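Job type: complex structure
Entries:
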Amino acid sequence: MNARTHRGIREAIRARIVAGEWQLGELIPGEVEFAEEYACSRTTVNRALQALAEEGMVERKRKGGTRVRPLPLPQAQLRIPLLREQVEDAGGAYRCEVVDRRIARAPDAIAERLDTGEAKAAYLETLHLADERPFAFETRWINLAAVPQFAEADLGELSANEWLVRTVPFTRGEVALSAATAEGRIADLLGTEEGAALFTMDRTTWLDDHPVTTMRLHYPPGYRLEFAI
Amino acid sequence: MNARTHRGIREAIRARIVAGEWQLGELIPGEVEFAEEYACSRTTVNRALQALAEEGMVERKRKGGTRVRPLPLPQAQLRIPLLREQVEDAGGAYRCEVVDRRIARAPDAIAERLDTGEAKAAYLETLHLADERPFAFETRWINLAAVPQFAEADLGELSANEWLVRTVPFTRGEVALSAATAEGRIADLLGTEEGAALFTMDRTTWLDDHPVTTMRLHYPPGYRLEFAI
């Protein structure tokens, strides 16, 4: 292909883009520079760039020059479901069991995260079941300054999360996903072996500036959190 | 509190909502039914429900009755970043190394996912490094019917993912997050011990109806994928 035809120039520039000469989103040379480099007219370069723009390789702005098409950000709308919904959507019967519940000083890292200082907080362990098999194990601390009524709450059939969702408006949260090794007690409760790899979700929620609750979910081996992008 | 005042009725209904008598989003009884149950006027019930609506416990629609406020869906805009960006955003120097690359028949599960049938596919192993320390290990299969030019591609400094992003428009993908146990080869490459719990991301992408690539990333112990909701 002749490097001076608009097709030839299009292919030459395409090859340079694919080879990584410029970062995604980076400005590439202008018509004048390419015309000089390929010893052709600006019109020819313009036609080549226009063709690359039409096939989505580059983006052209009237005054902004031409950029390598930035990464088409694969973004996911990741909805954090209620465990009850997750289980019921998969056709299972949901139930939860409170394994431990007490009022205590939180460990330092938790006290800092919940901003409870020297004050006691509510601690709750819940085993979530799908068709009576362990679905997830939850440990949760609740800031009693933010939700004093939790201390006396009768959760009944509700999980602590469902109770909180009904009681405290949600403003914002932080989530961290990671992997953890199953240790004695958690391995037992999830019915798995010590040392198994567990998918783990940490979540802290705030009401305005006040931390309300921080929790960790451990899922049994084999759990997958799936979503579309 | 007198159960026949609007305040008393408001508190009574609130307690029933918090106790889980109705599902989130579920229709609760109408004014007529509550008025009968609490032996008061519809106006009084109306005032009570209005107050609950104002504080966000319920939602009222002119003709649709009153529902328990549905779950304020905690939704995350989870962006799937390029590994290069993840590393550079954290202030590290990014580099990647191709550990293995060949053309071969994919294992059955992969061949089915990529719809490659009996045809060979490209296989690639890449170690992603941050400041020369293992950041993630990637195994990837590429459908050569969808991206024939990959067979001969000179990746240079680019990761396969970056090359693909530049070459093939992205239409949709599926992601699954899970935890896996580090096995011999992967443990070695990530510089961790066998049996460690590794955060794992599987991703398959399509161009229109054609599967392009499917990959798995293993992150070393301690990695956390964090986002806000």
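Summary: Chain B is about 25% helix and 35% strand. The helical segments of chain B are 6-18, 31-37, 42-54, 83-89, 108-114, 160-167, 184-190.
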